[in-house]
Amino acid sequence: MFSLRQLKAFVTVAENKSFTNAAKILFMTQPAISAQIKALEERLEVKLIERNDKTIALTEAGEVLFIEAQKILDIYDGFMEAIDEMKGIHRGKLFITASTIPGEYVLPILIGGFHRVYPGIEISLKIGDTGAVVQQLLKRTVDIGIIGAPVKNESISLKEFIKDELIIIGPPGNTKNVQEISVEELVEADLVLREPDSGTRMMFYEKISSAGVEIRQLKVVMELGSTRAIITAVESGLGLSVVSRLAAQEALELGKITEYRVRGISFERYLYLAWNKNKYESFAAKEFFSFLDSRKHEISSKTVKCQ
């Protein structure tokens, strides 16, 4: 009979496409990882992983086992957490992934509050763009995602979390007052935007498309993978951009950038909780969802910024 240890080694190798990285994650030696995989293959009498020079690939049998092994490990984790809960032991691991704005400006505060309630729960937060968050959810390597734009995938469930506001920003001017521009002026301006999979960019495109603007009309002169880099680029005069008010507030107050309002367009949006409906909901995830639900009415762009 194969062991959970063997399945864990196999799943970790498959997720990371590397024996070396899997060994580091599991605090094992690479030969030990290889031995676990070999023992699993011998027990199942089938090849699971093909090694080609420095790359690895799952065989057809490996692909099937990868899907089923994740389910087995999820069930085991759920069982152990249920036993701990019966004993009154509140511990476990919580894996969260978030796009840039909620990851950098909202979650750190909330995670701090949650940790004070459940100090025994170990929390990991990974930050990427919305596309990367969705991929992690689909791989079932995380419990919860928070994103800045809704996505359509039959495996992903979404729930509105808190309201946010996107704003147009430009280089510093002679006033801190909000400046008003037309849609036509926005179309004619040089734009510095986040990468295509960014929730901010997706929502920006959705809003201006609703106002009759064709995306191909926009003059995107630069793409950057960081909101902080966007603000710095705008500050130096490279063009206009769109960012969350959460991210821009400090630079606005210091007069480093100018806020613009586009006549006829509201850039309000929601941040969304996202999860894989096919993944077992751990005790830690269940309690974190409950904690977020109890706090969401207290949270807004203003309150998060000021806490």
Give structural notes.
The chain is of the alpha/beta class and 307 residues long. The protein has three domains: 62 residues, Winged helix-like DNA-binding domain superfamily/Winged helix DNA-binding domain (Arc Repressor Mutant, subunit A, Orthogonal Bundle); 112 residues, Periplasmic binding protein-like II (D-Maltodextrin-Binding Protein, domain 2, 3-Layer(aba) Sandwich), CATH 3.40.190; 107 residues, D-Maltodextrin-Binding Protein, domain 2, CATH 3.40.190.290. Helices cover 47% and strands 24% of the residues. The chain contains twelve helices and twelve strands. Strands 3, 4, 5, 6, 7, 10, 11 and 12 form an eight-stranded mixed sheet that branches. Strands 1-2 form a two-stranded antiparallel sheet. β3, α5 and β4 form a beta-alpha-beta unit. The chain is elongated, with a radius of gyration of 23 Å. The protein starts with a helix and ends with a helix. The C terminus is likely disordered.
